[in-house]
Structure formats: structure tokens, C-alpha cells
Specification:
Length: 352
Amino acid sequence: MKQVFRVLQIAFTYIGTVVGAGFATGQEILQFFTQYGKWATITIVLSTMLFVWLGTKMMLIAHDTRSRSYEDLNKHLFGHRAGRWITWITLIVLIGVNSVMLAGAGSVFMEHLGLHYQTGLIITLIGTYLLLGRGMQAILQMNSIVVPMMLLLSLLMIFSTLHHPGVYRFVTLTTDSNPFQIWISPLLYTAFNLALAQAVLVPVGNQIRHRNTLKWGGILGGIGVGFMLMAAHFAMSAQMPGIIQFEIPMGSIAFQLGWIVQSVYVTLIFMEIFTTFVADIYGMTLQLRQHVDVHPRLITLIIMMLCYSFSQFGFSSLLSVLYPIFGCMALFWAGKLIRDRWGTFRGRNNVN
């Protein structure tokens, strides 16, 4: 039972790392999948298979090579010099993404709770600092609470859509998009998310002792991500094309289900931002500890202050340049991950 619980913790952490604010709002799913009509169901299945395979393989490689941080993994995949360059680009993108997520947390407090924007930022930062004092165990436990709630909300979305007049649109919707856009989209989505998730999944792979526990946790986590993708796509397809006009597509569905579901949804958006933010700060701290000989709590504080500073001014202009570069790099990174001979599913159940 202890190992089963550990498998679930790993799976929930995997899901919680991938499912950030963009996923929770539905905007990512709409842009990468739902807008492509009936083809989205097939591309989501493809993306799920990649999440199961490559996410698990990444954690197993981290376990087998004893990689402490994503920098160690990148050096293993690309060699010392190229691996360091890729790591620093990843760090800049992670700081940018987490600055935007922190700004999103402030917006949730302001728009839905009637509190000041800065209050949301400060509460998020204080909560992050306190939780990170407990290390990886806090991240595993936190996701064990939040992710089951997200899965329940996904089920509720499915059941509510079953009574909608457009329930079968997920298999009938047409699209004018060209085939290249349709089929590159799941590859980009999976590669981009896994390249960011390595900040969390590599330390998980390194710190979990039993290889089989890690393997089954990764498999269940990848399936869980795919299930949530499909549930959101199913719910949004029923309301196409009108749902495209909403900035928060999933929110428009939640608001139709009453104030209780609406309140739960708003809470979960914040918790998804918070869990991803905490995990990413932890991963960046581990990476920087390999270069800076200071206490990890000080490194954490510096990273959080950087995110806080950028959340005041916006990171959009820099991210608009970095995102395409990082997207191409993520595809190349995923290709190296596929070709790497380490991290096979049939490896020995060795112990660190």
C-alpha cells in the first residue's frame, strides 16, 4: 500500500506540474487541440502517448544517471557545453513563465476575491517560501490534494456536457487548418511542456528510490494529463465555435454550472498556479545551487524576488521572442530524449 500511495503521489505531481494556468483556463487546449475539430481527439491521444513515454523516460533517466537537477539531465543529453547553454535558456524561460504565473495569481485575488493585486502576489510568495522549507515532500503532498480535485472537476465537466445539444461535436467539427499545423501541434505542446516540467520531474526521478514506483507513477501521470486534455476538449467542443471568444473558455463552462462549481473552479485555478510555481522555484533552486555556494533558502528568495519584479512590469515582450526559440529547442530536446539509450522501461529496480 505504501508503494501504491507513492505511485499516486508521483502521478499527481506529474499532472500538477504540466497542468498550469494556461491549461486550467482552457486557452492552451483550445489553441493546440480543440480549434482543429475532429482531428483533436486523435492528436490528444498522440500527445497522451508522448506524455506517458517521454515523461516517464525523463524521470527514469534522472534516476539511472543520478541527475540532481535539469542541468545534469541536459548535460547528459547534449554534452557539457551545449547542455549548459540549453540549461540557461531554460532558466530564463522558467523565470519568465513563473513571473506571468505569479501575475496570474495576483489577478485571481483581484478579480474574484476583491483583494488588492499585490496581496495575491505576497500571499503566493510567502506560501511558496514556507512550503519549500519542506522540500520535495511538500510538493508531493500538495499535488496529492489539488490534483484529485482537478480530476473530479474534469469528470463533472464531462457529465454536464453529456446533456448538451452539441455533445457529439468533438467527432464532427471540421477545420480549415492545414495538416502540418494539425499534426505539429501535439508535438510542440508535449515537447514544450515536458521541457519546462524537467525542472520538477528530474528531482523527482533522482529522489524516488524504487525504479518501478517511478515508472508506474510516470505512466499514470501521463494518462492523467491525457484524460484532462480530453475532458476539456470534449466540454469545449460542444460549445464551438462560440467559446473561442472567451479569454477563459473553461471558466465560461464552469460559470454555467452554478456558483458552487464556479467557486471551486476559481480556487483550483489559483491552486494550479500555486503548485506549479512552488515546484518550478524548487527546481530552479536545485539547478542554481550547483553554481552558487550559498544557502538554498537565499537562492529561493532571489528567484522569487526576480519573479515578483518582472510580474510588476510584464514579461510579454521578452517571452514573445523566447517562446518560439524555446519551442524549437524543446522539439530538438525531445528528439534527444527519444534517442537516449538510458531510462528504458525494463531496467533493473535498483536503489539509489
